């Protein structure tokens, strides 16, 4: 029997969601718990996990499409099975299992309804069709929707079209100085929390903790040069990375709270010295730049791995307890490498900030001078950085938390504690 993974209901009053990311393709084998997609509403982003297992036999949507909630996002079946004539059951990928009839699993994709609506309206009303997410991100970046070619249903501008426009703008700037991919993960009021990922990751790594960060504040994240949607933005030094991030954040808000991991933590600290950003607080997870040493073998092994088995072997070094490294994280990292030039771009970033096992930058002076609330969180079992060097380099004005039985990913191995410390740091800023 084919299983339908449904588009989750992402809000009581919302009837549609944008398919932001697809982590599987037709013919892929999916296991229970695998991350298969990310959908986005006007208010938040949601990861869609498989609550069944099988082979992907049908995918009515592509990235950027606007989907009806509770419509099939994809179908899982047996190898060689087709959807036509197959009995279908519905699996809702959210905690609340809503009753769905067999008739409901055959809902036509939202694209048909939107196209019909667009045809009925005609093109004389002067209104450019766009998704709520696309409108919000275009407004945040100062982009005119009329200048963006839409690839969605009925020619609508969707999130990936805005992202492409941002990328085109970035590549038009000088190398290392263009705009980066910045995305709103949660709407809110007040000074936003800006999350900056570490080397080899991307902004999607923060999605799991969005809902637990201080309620009411917006949460945003960006892709560093050479990573994610910013893969084509180059940087030849740590200073250029910082400059690129700073330029991309300068007009985001009057005040910001920075949360960074590893390389992203070093960038966050360095941003406080620019003078044109109002940084209210810093939370630094396993920060690079405090000490000279880095595991150069890990950097090379991580970049060279081409199979899931090899990549998992190196990524286990990021955690003290291998069981804390979810297989879906490894598969998502490997799938991201399908982006042309991504690994080569990350090699260039690595060459800019590391020389074998030596870090080529330091954030010690920046931390010494920062007067706002600052929290540094490290794992005592971190083998990527030298924790003795890090601990000795944290200035007296920063709060240092050394977590037992935790490696380089405290946000994974001690998630609740880390989220509590982030909340405390943000609130201390007033």
Automatic annotation (TrEMBL):
Cofactor: (R)-lipoate
UniProt keyword terms in alphabetical order: Acyltransferase, Lipoyl, Transferase
Domain of life: Bacteria
Gene Ontology cellular-component terms listed: cytoplasm
Any one GO MF annotation of this record: lipoic acid binding
Lipoyl-binding domain location: 2-77
Pfam families: Abhydrolase_6, Biotin_lipoyl, E3_binding
Domain Peripheral subunit-binding (PSBD), residue spans: 129-166
Signal sequence coordinates: none
Chain coiled-coil ranges: none
InterPro entries from the UniProt entry: 2-oxoA_DH_lipoyl-BS (IPR003016), 2-oxoacid_DH_E2_comp (IPR050743), AB_hydrolase_1 (IPR000073), AB_hydrolase_fold (IPR029058), Biotin_lipoyl (IPR000089), E3-bd_dom_sf (IPR036625), PSBD (IPR004167), Single_hybrid_motif (IPR011053)
Similarity comment: family membership: Belongs to the 2-oxoacid dehydrogenase family.
Subunit description: Forms a 24-polypeptide structural core with octahedral symmetry.
UniProt name for this protein: Acetoin dehydrogenase dihydrolipoyllysine-residue acetyltransferase subunit
Native species: Meridianimarinicoccus roseus
């Amino acid at each position: 029997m084919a299983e339908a993974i449904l588009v989750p209901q992402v809000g009581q009053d919302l009837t549609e969601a944008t398919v932001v990311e697809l982590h599987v393709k037709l013919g892929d084998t999916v296991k229970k718990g695998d991350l298969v997609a990310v959908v986005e509403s006007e208010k938040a982003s949601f990861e869609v996990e498989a609550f069944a297992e099988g082979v992907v036999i049908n995918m009515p949507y592509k990235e950027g499409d606007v989907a009806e909630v509770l419509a099939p996002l994809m179908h899982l079946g047996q190898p060689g099975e087709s959807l036509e004539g197959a009995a279908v059951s519905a699996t809702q990928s959210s905690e609340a299992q809503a009753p769905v009839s067999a008739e409901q699993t055959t809902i036509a994709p939202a694209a048909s309804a939107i196209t019909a609506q667009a045809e009925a309206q005609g093109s004389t009303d002067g209104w450019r069709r766009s998704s709520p997410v696309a409108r919000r991100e275009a407004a945040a970046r100062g982009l005119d929707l009329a200048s963006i070619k839409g690839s969605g249903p009925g020619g609508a501008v969707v999130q990936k079209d805005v992202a492409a426009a941002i990328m085109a703008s970035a590549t038009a700037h000088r190398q290392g100085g263009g705009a980066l991919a910045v995305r709103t993960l949660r709407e809110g009021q007040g000074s936003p929390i800006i999350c900056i990922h570490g080397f080899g990751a991307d902004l999607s790594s923060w999605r799991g903790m969005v809902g637990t960060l201080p309620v009411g504040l917006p949460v945003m994240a960006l892709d560093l040069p050479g990573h994610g949607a910013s893969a084509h933005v180059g940087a030849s030094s740590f200073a250029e990375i910082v400059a690129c991030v700073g330029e991309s954040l300068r007009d985001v808000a009057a005040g910001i709270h920075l949360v960074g991991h590893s390389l992203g933590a070093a960038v966050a600290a360095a941003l406080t010295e620019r003078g044109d950003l109002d940084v209210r607080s810093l939370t630094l997870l396993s920060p690079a730049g405090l000490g000279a040493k880095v595991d150069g073998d890990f950097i090379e092994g991580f970049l060279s791995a081409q199979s899931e088995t090899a990549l998992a072997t190196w990524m286990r070094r990021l955690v003290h307890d291998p069981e804390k490294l979810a297989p879906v994280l490894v598969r998502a990292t490997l799938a991201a490498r399908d982006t042309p030039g991504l690994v080569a771009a990350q090699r260039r970033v690595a060459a800019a900030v590391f020389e074998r096992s030596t870090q080529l930058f330091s954030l010690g002076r920046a931390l010494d001078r920062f007067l706002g609330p600052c929290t540094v969180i490290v794992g005592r079992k971190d083998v990527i950085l030298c924790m003795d060097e890090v601990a000795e380099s944290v200035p007296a004005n920063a709060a240092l938390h050394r977590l037992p039985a935790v490696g380089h990913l405290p946000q994974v191995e001690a998630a609740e504690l880390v989220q509590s410390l982030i909340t405390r740091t943000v609130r201390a800023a007033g």
